[in-house]
Amino acid sequence: MSQKSNVDLGAVGGDGHGTPHSLSTNHPSHPHLDEDDDFPVSPRYRRIDHYGVDSTEAIAANVYSILTHIGEDPEREGLLKTPERVAKAHQFLTHGYSLDPKEILTKALFKEDYDEMILVKDIELYSLCEHHMVPFFGKAHVAYIPDGRIVGLSKIPRVVDVFARRLQVQERLTMQIRDAINEVLQPRGVAVVIEATHMCMVMRGVQKQHSSTTTSAVSGAFEDERTRAEFMRLIG
Ligand SMILES: [Zn+2]
Question: Model pTM?
Fold first, then answer.
């Protein structure tokens, strides 16, 4: 498999001792799905470079200020590179803004008469809540019933990721995934369920450490109770 879609996450996962980690943006559970890695792609399709020099400097200056205001000393050794690391991390964690989910779907459309439910389940999801800029993470399950057009299976997790890598509320994230698939594929129906744990709930305030939130958004054929029930049974 090509390594081109790997992203240097040194800024995100660095352990503070100069050991950058490298994480793949591919979904490890679906290693066979990135069949288009060798195709030439536009910047709005797959973002190669995640860090802008100007953005990194500007965000880092603000992080420096935050460190001061929470009572830290940004000049102590362990924190010297933290503003830059945080700046890069936030650019990576929000890189979905620069990607176009509709373009991703449009480029992998195929005519096909298959008219049964297509389900991609247990899609790993990492996002940031827009109220606290703190992570929420979990799994997405996406199903659709085609109407003459199907999309390459790997594109469903990609679309989830494009919307997840923005500041989000879980409800809107769920609907945006449904709507993008609806608009491009014009299928007989789409169903999206997201189960996620919100660190802003777990770590602060209510501290309900084992709570998770489930949201769903359906359209078309999935508004029928039996179809929806079959989808829920399959993801159960
Ligand atoms: Zn929050």
Answer: 0.79
**133 CA distance to ligand 1 centroid (A)?**
7
Same domain, 164 and 224: yes
pLDDT tens digit sequence for 70-128: 999 999 999 999 999 999 999 999 999 999 999 999 999 999 999 999 999 999 999 99
Contact partners, residue 167, CB within 8 Å, separation at least 6: 94, 128, 129, 130, 133
Which is catalytic among the residues 50, 90, 129, 141? 129
Name the residue range of residue 134's domain. Answer: 109-235
Does residue 117 lie within any of the structural domains?
yes
Mark whether 198 is an active-site residue.
yes
Torsion over CA of 178, 5, 15 and 126, rounded to 10 degrees? 0
Distance in Å, CA 168 to ligand 1 centroid: 9
- How much distance in Å is there from the Cα of 169 to the middle of ligand 1? 8
